[in-house]
Specification:
Blueprint lengths: L1 E6 L5 H13 L3 E6 L9 H8 L15 H8 L2 E7 L1 H9 L5 H8 L4 E5 L3 H5 L1 H12 L3 E2 L3 E4 L5 E5 L3 H14 L7 E6 L4 E2 L5 E2 L6 H12 L3 E6 L10 E5 L3 H10 L6 E4 L6 E2 L20 E2 L3 H8 L4 E8 L3 H11 L4 E6 L11 E8 L4 E8 H22 L3
Helix pairs in contact: 1-2, 1-8, 3-5, 4-7, 9-13
Length: about 400
């Protein structure tokens, strides 16, 4: 694999030399890119000797005015270690004043970031906000270790060990291709069930989890069809988005696109009831109480469970109590292979939040909790388990 190793300016830069050596031993091609501050700690000659390649440093001392673009296009993964507080801030805000930060803006592949800094800098609200911005973009963070730091303080901030960073890089490299040739059908967002021409029934779903799943699947090489209810989100790159409004429209588009799908993920929060006869004109407000007779909407997940054949079917269960029990009930009643359960109603996870904390209930009988993380990171963890589950079910069925 062709890897760019970005080296920021900090005492931990000396560990990056060992990281470069380990990546070369794994058979990767490594192109080192150093900031000016990094050169004050480790000389470029060190990385040139380890990688067998010229180290890129000065944006204006290069062979081509667009070399940062060509380097970004020629490589498959970008790893930055150490990533200083300054470098993380520049990446988060799109600043580009040297070769490395300019390359970051031009790079479209997976990015692994290994921060290293003073404990107070690490814990500062600005740094944490910048890290969260990068996580939302899908960057893989290799969290710093705790211990004695070069500044004399003790706490989180020391660069993760090279072995840990290599493991993260290898993990991202595998993800890049593990859904290649597959078609993944995903539903996301709420539905809107009209009550009259201006009013409708809906729910608090933002669609963020479904869109994160679509983005993650596309990044791993899948063809992704995303059937989306009304949301205010930018469509993920490389994903076919089919907009719908009502539960019936969502059902129709899901069934229309079911044929080629290998994996179906039902992440949408479909309204449970609808008004079967919608008035043609706006209902006027009066002092009298009105009653609505609502009918159930189509149960898309149950229908998918009856028609799934060899497909892998994943449902979602948003609950306010008895999470595992309800997820297990849905798994059995809807004939799912996995149900992703999450408690909703809190302000910091679930609906409308950029973070999630879920529990996976699997057909194999396992229950796997996923700790709080960005929805993009949760999406990748879900796909990790989806692929493991498929292997386990295939082995159990003797395929």
């Amino acid at each position: 694999m062709k890897i760019i190793l970005g080296v920021g300016g900090g005492i931990a830069a000396y560990k990056s030399a060992e990281l470069a050596r380990m990546l070369m031993q794994q058979g990767h091609q490594v192109q080192a890119v150093m900031t000016a501050a990094a050169e004050e700690f480790v000389r470029p000659l060190t990385f040139a000797a380890l990688t067998g390649r010229k180290v890129l440093t000065n944006l204006f001392a290069i062979e081509s005015a667009i070399e940062h673009i060509s380097v970004a296009q020629e490589h498959e993964l970008l790893a930055i270690a150490p990533a200083t507080a300054d470098l993380i801030a520049k990446m988060a805000h799109g600043l580009a004043d040297d070769f490395l930060t300019t390359l970051c803006l031009a790079f479209t592949g997976p990015v692994v970031v290994a921060p290293a800094m003073n404990v107070n800098m690490w814990q500062h609200a600005a740094t944490q906000a910048n890290l969260e911005t990068l996580r939302k973009r899908g960057y893989r963070m290799v969290e710093p270790g705790r211990g004695y730091l070069a500044c004399g303080m003790t706490g989180p901030g020391r660069l993760a060990e090279p072995e840990e960073i290599v493991a993260a890089i290898e993990s991202e490299a595998r993800k890049r291709h593990d859904l290649e040739g597959e078609t993944v059908l995903i539903t996301a967002g709420p539905t809107q069930e009209p009550l009259d021409p201006v009013r409708f029934l809906t729910n608090r779903s933002s669609g963020k989890m479904g869109y994160a799943l679509a983005e993650a699947a596309a990044a791993r090489g899948a063809k992704v069809v995303l059937v989306s209810g009304p949301v205010h989100l930018t469509p993920p790159r490389g994903v076919e988005v089919i907009p719908v409004r009502t539960a019936e429209e969502m059902r129709a588009k899901v069934m229309e696109n079911l044929g080629p799908a290998h994996i179906v993920i039902k992440a949408a929060a479909v309204a449970d009831f609808h008004l079967s006869k919608v008035p043609e004109q706006k209902v006027k407000k009066t002092a009298a109480r009105i009653s609505l007779e609502l009918d159930p909407t189509p149960d898309i997940l149950a229908e998918l469970g009856r028609k799934k054949d060899d497909r892998l079917l994943i449902g979602f269960a948003a609950e306010t109590q008895n999470l595992v029990q309800e997820a297990r009930r849905k798994l059995e009643s809807k004939n799912c292979d996995m149900v992703v359960g999450n408690l909703v109603g809190g302000a910091d996870v679930g609906f409308e939040s950029d973070q999630n904390e879920v529990i996976l209930v699997l057909r194999t009988g396992e229950t796997i909790p996923l700790a709080r993380a960005s929805k993009r990171e949760i999406a990748d963890r879900i796909f990790d388990q989806v692929l493991k589950l498929r292997l386990a079910l295939s082995a159990a069925n003797g395929r």
